[in-house]
Every structure is written in C-alpha cells, then in structure tokens.
C-alpha cells in the first residue's frame, strides 16, 4: 500500500498508484499493440467497462466495487470501453503505431471539438504540457453516447506521460 495517495492530494493518481492497480497494463503488454489503460483506483460501484468489452478483457465481478481487472492478453484495443466509463478513466494507447509515434484515443467532453489534422498540445495527468501532437480521428458516433473519442499521434518518447490533450478554446 502506498504511504501517500496522490489522488487525495492532487486530484489525479500518481504512476506508482496506477501501476499497483489491476487495470493498468505493463510495458510487456503495450509493446504488443493497442491496449486499454484503466486509471480507476477508487473502489466504487461501477462496471460498464466490463459489459462493453466484447473480448472479456475487463472484469469487475462481485462485489461491483472491485477495481476493474484488465486481462491484457484478451484486450484488442478496440476502445469500446472508453466512452462507457462514467469517470473518463479509460484510454487506449498504441506504442507500435510507427517507429517514432504513438497514438492515444481518449474521451473528450469539451466544445469545440478538435478537428482531424489539427495540431494539439498533449498533456499529462496534471494537465501540464508534454509535447505536441496531431489529431487523426474524431469519433463522435451515436454509439459513444455523446462522449466523443479523440485519437492523436505524438512523439512516442512521451508515451508514459501523455494522457490527453489541452482543451481547445
């Protein structure tokens, strides 16, 4: 157990807290291709991610307050779990996208939405600028129930830090 919980102090979990959860993939897992990252560290009654995954790659089980468990060997990185998470705590990253770039797909509930091809600022968990990126897809389909999924490419040297983009104004 961690001596100090960053979520309670800063509003976002530390990487050390996340690594200790069963929903956060290990390096050997994300080196194989796109995979879900579940940043859920609070034991709350919630399980839409489990129901959304067609591969059974996420389980919560009983009681419903269990932390979600990512079965990395089953995750195809489809991203169906992203929009169903009411806590916006799931994103998909692909370290294998190209030799120099990685991709992240994440929920974005602000307006205006970014546009495909738009250059954006990639940020870390604290909302601090990490690097520049480019939006490659804006998925605003009905299936996402009004939670657009943005996909952006960025320099893979920042793979561990990037979790979203700076809000477009």
- Structural class designation: alpha+beta
Q: Rg from C-alpha positions?
A: 15 Å
What is the ordering of alpha helices and beta strands?
Answer: HHHEHEEHEEEEEE
Largest sheet: 7 strands, antiparallel
Strand content: 25-35%
The total beta strand count reads 9
Number of helices: 5
Arithmetic mean of pLDDT: 94
Question: How helix-rich are the residues, as a percent range?
Answer: 10-25%
Structure characterization notes:
By secondary structure, the chain is α+β, with helices and mostly antiparallel strands. The chain has helices at about 5-10, 15-20, 25-30, 50, 80-85; strands at about 35-40, 60, 70, 90-95, 100-105, 120-125, 130-140, 150-155, 165. A hairpin with a 5-residue loop joins strand 6 (about 120-125) and strand 7 (about 130-140). About 30% of the residues are buried.
Secondary structure blueprint with pairings:
Blueprint: H1 6-10, H2 15-19, H3 27-30, E1 35-38, H4 48-52, E2 58-59, E3 69-70, H5 80-84, E4 90-94, E5 101-107, E6 119-123, E7 129-139, E8 149-155, E9 164-165
Antiparallel strand pairs: 1-4, 2-3, 4-5, 5-8, 6-7, 6-9, 7-8
Short description:
This is Electron transport complex subunit RsxB. With 169 residues, the protein is an alpha+beta fold.
């Amino acid at each position: 157990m961690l001596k100090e919980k960053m979520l309670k102090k800063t509003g976002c979990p530390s990487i050390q807290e996340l690594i200790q959860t069963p929903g956060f993939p290990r390096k050997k897992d994300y080196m194989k291709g796109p995979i879900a990252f579940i940043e859920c560290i609070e034991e709350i009654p919630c399980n839409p991610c489990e129901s959304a995954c067609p591969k059974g790659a996420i389980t919560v089980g009983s009681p419903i307050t269990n932390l979600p468990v990512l079965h990395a060997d089953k995750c195809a990185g489809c991203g169906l779990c992203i929009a169903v998470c009411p806590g916006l705590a799931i994103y998909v990253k692909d370290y294998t996208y190209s030799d120099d770039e990685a991709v992240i797909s994440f929920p974005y509930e602000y307006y205006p939405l970014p546009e495909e091809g738009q250059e954006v600022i990639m940020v870390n968990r604290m909302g601090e600028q990490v690097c520049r990126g480019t939006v490659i897809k804006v998925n605003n389909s009905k299936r996402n129930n009004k939670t657009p999924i943005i996909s952006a490419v960025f320099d893979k040297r920042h793979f561990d830090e990037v979790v979203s983009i700076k809000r477009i104004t």
